[in-house]
Specification:
Elements lengths: L3 E2 L6 E2 L2 E4 L5 E2 L2 E2 L1 H13 L4 E3 L7 H8 L3 H5 L1 E6 L7 H15 L4 E9 L1 H9 L2 H10 L3 E8 L3 H8 L6 E5 L10 H10 L3 E5 L13 H10 L5 H10 L6 E4 L4 H13 L7 H17 L19 H13 L8 H9 L29 H12 L4 H11 L1 H11 L2
Parallel strand pairs: 3-6, 3-12, 6-7, 7-8, 8-9, 9-10, 10-11, 11-12
Antiparallel strand pairs: 1-2, 4-5
Helix pairs in contact: 2-4, 7-8, 9-12, 10-11, 13-14, 13-15
């Protein structure tokens, strides 16, 4: 991979970074063997940047344990201050010191304020954010600073000007080009020499997997050998202002595909015809997608046990893939994954409207209203009868019944 230079810091970073939010799990915990294999393979093949956060479960601690010896010097680390938990100045110092211990490092390469908008930053400024950052830098605890943005595009430029930031992390993909920071906001940050880190390049996997048939036809007609994930990642890397794209890769095939496209894609390398192809697919997707959820999981955990990202994902997929029939594949997935057939129920009907998820959603979705739509779509009166039957006959038999009912 041809590294890209962050003008403000002088660092050369790989265009593909490893996002450590969605590491592979085993029995609810990080699968150490599988995750280690992925990370070491990525580093051995040119990736020199890993992103994590205090709120990503055991991610920081795990990375601190495996990035030792030769691997410790081969990668830069970015992690994030959990802004949602900061109530006073001392909280910021506490979290930073705790993160240094977890990561087993004397200094953090890039320290970002996590999931902020202008309101959040103003709250933190009143608690001494700039003094904290200046002190931490002078003491050598952090080298460079930035923030991950989850606000509206109208406030992005103002936030950029509140402090002498080195980098910013934004959600950016061809489907969400004009939300949050937007392409124009990225250009403004880059004009100040800031590094641009990108999260959600595949929109939580929506742009990487199976797509509506008419969208897939457009891609296949343009290039039958290129995957949907490659199209999405190439589009982001084509932006000359993007320094590093963090992808949450939890399978070796995903990693290899992403490495290949990062090797092949240079700034401004996509042709006009390729860009037009992506625009055509975007129009198809926009017409089909009902809820603009990236399944980031920031809304979790729900006090009532609702699996919010999965509920919204299944609802979206029903319309993306035009699932029809009284008992269709989306209906089956709903009862299997959140309805209670496999483990504890996390269905939309459990929502009591407490609203704790609303202030945490980066997309500013009205999650309560969206969950009502999901409940209406899937939770039929016969639900209490379907669940025991499905559990007794087993998933394989249940799938066969669904196929027969939809012939």
């Amino acid at each position: 991979m041809q590294n890209r230079i962050i003008r403000k810091t002088g660092d050369e970073v790989s265009p593909l970074g490893f996002g450590a939010m969605r590491l592979p799990l085993k029995n609810g915990k990080i699968d150490r063997d599988k995750a280690s294999e992925l990370i070491y393979y990525a580093i051995d093949n040119g990736v020199n940047f890993i992103d994590t956060a205090y709120l990503y479960g055991d991610s920081e601690k795990f990375l601190g344990e495996i990035l030792q010896g030769e691997y410790k010097d081969k990668v830069k680390i970015s992690t994030k201050l959990p802004s949602i938990h900061v109530r006073k100045y001392e909280d910021m110092e506490y979290f930073l010191d705790e993160q240094l211990k977890r990561l087993q490092r004397d200094s953090i390469d890039y320290y970002l304020i996590h999931s902020v908008d202008l309101k959040t930053v103003n709250r933190l400024l009143k608690r001494g954010l700039t003094d904290f950052l200046d002190k931490a830098k002078s003491e050598g605890k952090i080298k460079h600073v930035g923030f991950s943005y989850h606000g509206v595009k109208e406030e992005f430029d103002t936030l950029i000007d509140t402090y002498d930031w080195d980098v910013v992390m934004v959600q950016y993909n061809y489907f969400d080009e004009n939300i949050q920071a937007s392409t124009e906001g990225i250009e403004y940050a880059a004009s100040k020499g800031m590094g641009i880190f990108v999260m959600e390049p595949l929109k939580g996997g929506i742009l990487a997997g199976k797509m509506p048939s008419d969208a897939e036809e457009i891609f296949k007609k343009a290039n039958p050998d290129k995957t949907t994930a490659q199209w999405a990642l190439q589009w982001v890397l084509n932006n000359r202002n993007v320094s590093c794209v963090f992808s949450g890769m939890n399978a070796i095939d995903q990693l290899k595909d992403n490495l290949d496209i990062a090797d092949e894609t240079f700034p401004m390398s996509m042709t006009f015809e390729e860009l037009e192809t992506v625009e055509a697919v975007k129009r198809v997707m926009r017409n089909a997608l009902k809820i603009n959820c990236s399944t980031c999981g920031y809304c979790m955990p729900c006090p009532q046990g609702v699996n919010i990202p999965e509920c919204l994902k299944i609802y979206n997929e029903k319309y993306l893939f035009n699932h029809k029939g009284f008992i269709n594949p989306a209906f089956m997935d709903y009862y299997q994954y959140v309805g209670g057939i496999m483990g504890k129920a996390g269905n939309a009907g459990l929502c009591n409207g407490c609203g704790k998820c609303l202030r945490k959603c980066p997309q500013k979705l009205d999650i309560i209203s969206e969950l009502k739509k999901v409940k209406k779509e899937f939770e039929i009166p016969a639900m209490k009868y379907i669940l025991p039957v499905a559990k007794n006959i087993g998933i394989p038999v249940y799938k066969q019944i669904v196929k027969l009912l939809n012939r």
